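can u do me a favor
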C-alpha cells in the first residue's frame, strides 16, 4: 500500500522574510527627522540685531565733511567702551558706517577695539541700507553708524516702526526675529 505521504506533497516550510536592514533604515529616518526639527527650531529662534547709532558731533565750521569735535571724540570713546566685550559669536559681527568722516571716526575706536573693519555704505537711503545689512548678515549682530537724517528711515525699513528723529546721543537696538515682528529699543546716553 502506497503511503499517503508519498502521494501528497511535503508541507512547505514557510519562512517570514524580515528585511535585515529595516531597523537600520528606520533608525536613520528617525535621526534625520529629529535633526530636521532641531534645525527648524534653531532657525526660528535666530535673531538679527542691528544697533543704529548717529555719528558723533563734528567740528563747527564751514567744512562740509567736518571731523569729530572734542565732544564727538568722547562720544566715540564711550561707544567703544559699551562694545568693549562685544566681539565673537555673542558680539558684533560687522560694522557699517556712512561715507562721512564723522561716521567713520565715530566707529573707529569700536572697530580697533574689536578688530573689525568697518564697511562703508555706498547707499544713502534706509531701505537700501536695510536690504544690504539683512542680505549679508542674517542672524548676526551689526553696528551701523550713520547720519541722523537716515536713521528714522533705516529703523522703519528694518522694523516697520516710525521713530522720531534721532538725538545726538540716541542709540536704537532693532531685534529682528525670523518669523515675528521686529522690536525697537531706543536708548539715550
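np, heres the sequence
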Amino acid at each position: 500500500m502506497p503511503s499517503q505521504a508519498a502521494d501528497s506533497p511535503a508541507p512547505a516550510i514557510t519562512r517570514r522574510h524580515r528585511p535585515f536592514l529595516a531597523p537600520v533604515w528606520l533608525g536613520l529616518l528617525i535621526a534625520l527627522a529629529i535633526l530636521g526639527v532641531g534645525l527648524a527650531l534653531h532657525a526660528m529662534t535666530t535673531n538679527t540685531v542691528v544697533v543704529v547709532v548717529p555719528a558723533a558731533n563734528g567740528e563747527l565750521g564751514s567744512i562740509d565733511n567736518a571731523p569729530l569735535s572734542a565732544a564727538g571724540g568722547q562720544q566715540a570713546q564711550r561707544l567703544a567702551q559699551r562694545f568693549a566685550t562685544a566681539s565673537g559669536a555673542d558680539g558684533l559681527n560687522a560694522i557699517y558706517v556712512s561715507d562721512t568722516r564723522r561716521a567713520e571716526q565715530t566707529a573707529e575706536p569700536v572697530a580697533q577695539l574689536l578688530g573689525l573693519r568697518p564697511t562703508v555704505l555706498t547707499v544713502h537711503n534706509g531701505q537700501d541700507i536695510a536690504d544690504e545689512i539683512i542680505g549679508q548678515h542674517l542672524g548676526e549682530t551689526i553696528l551701523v553708524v550713520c547720519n541722523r537724517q537716515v536713521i528714522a528711515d533705516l529703523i522703519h525699513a528694518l522694523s516697520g516702526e516710525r521713530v522720531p528723529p534721532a538725538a545726538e546721543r540716541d542709540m536704537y537696538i532693532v531685534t529682528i526675529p525670523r518669523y515675528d515682528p521686529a522690536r525697537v529699543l531706543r536708548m539715550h546716553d
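The CA atoms of residues 54 and 168 lie 7 Å apart. hope that helps!!
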